[in-house]
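=== RUN LOG ===
request id: a7f3
mode: sequence -> structure
chains: 1
length: 93
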Amino acid sequence: MARPAPALPDAAALRARIDESGRLGVKVTPGTREEAVVFADDTVLVKVRAPADKGAANAAVVQVVARALGLAPSRVTLLRGGTSRSKRLQVSL
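=== RESULT ===
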């Protein structure tokens, strides 16, 4: 059975949340049933299937955010929050 496609917002709406220095703050929920990027007030919530074990969730966050922005995963890097649910990403547009 194929996995469902992630629920992703409009790329322009997500790009509007990136600050002038190319940084994006996200809050991550690992181990979810479906992958998604959703907006809640001023927060970008990223839900990933990968467990929070040995960096698997961090790699999945980079992949999902890059897909939501329509970018290659190499253009999104983790700056802070390697062991936290709150993360700061650097995005090269």
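=== NOTES ===
Residues 11-91 form a domain with the Conserved Hypothetical Protein Mth637; Chain: A; fold (CATH 3.30.1200.10).
The two ends are 34 Å apart (CA to CA).
=== END ===
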